[in-house]
Design goal:
Radius of gyration: 18 Å
Structural class: mainly alpha
Order of helices and strands: HHHHHHHHHHHH
Helix content: over 70%
Strand content: under 5%
Amino acid sequence: MNIYESFVIAFSMYSRIPMPKVEWSERGMKYAMCFFPLVGLVLGLCMYASYVFLSWISVAALTKAVVLTALPILLTGGIHLDGYIDTSDALQSWQESEKKLEILKDPHVGAFGVIRAILYFVITLGIMGEMNQNMLAVYIGGLFLSRTLSGLSVVCFKCAKNSGLAATFADGAAKKRVRLIFCLYLVLAFLYLSGVGKISGCLLFLCAFITFGYYKWMSQKQFGGITGDLAGYFLCICEMFFGIVLVISKYVGWI
């Protein structure tokens, strides 16, 4: 059954949640991207449940912030953070597109990647230290939305090269049907965010599309198209901005 195979492939690739073994066949790859946003949904629910449990046992606020910062990395294996670090190195090289693509493939981490990673964790830790239960309920929708847009880019944007993770999923996808499913996901994400978060949810939705527009412009200008690393970079900065929007909303009374 290809839908089951697609589900397992998506969760096996984009999470560290134990999954049964299936063959990565052409049939299974057709709809694998459709289940990518569900990884974000599961991740958000795990973060929410962890926060509720940690609050119930009355742990310190810093401990909760550390857990909420580390949990997404533990559950995804850091696959998106790897793309964020590689892309940060490539962007700071100020080289031509071909050289930037070579940097993305380089297994070594440069100084700028390390600096950006430290900055990312410091900002994320601060954001998670401000989180409350209502904010996390909105953030769940954000994790679903960011992965919807990331997946949409894979089946809509030009790939920078014919090999790599993004190209593999793009080539294997039933693109027309996957695009329709992602459009449905966008509608569901907006309904959820506007219903649960009200003003903050709508701002988060707007923030996602602004970041998405930057991602498309940057990837075309700097790399000639998208790659798996660039999709991971988008996901990280998008979710970081989500957190900033929610913190601002908290202090102005929108959530």
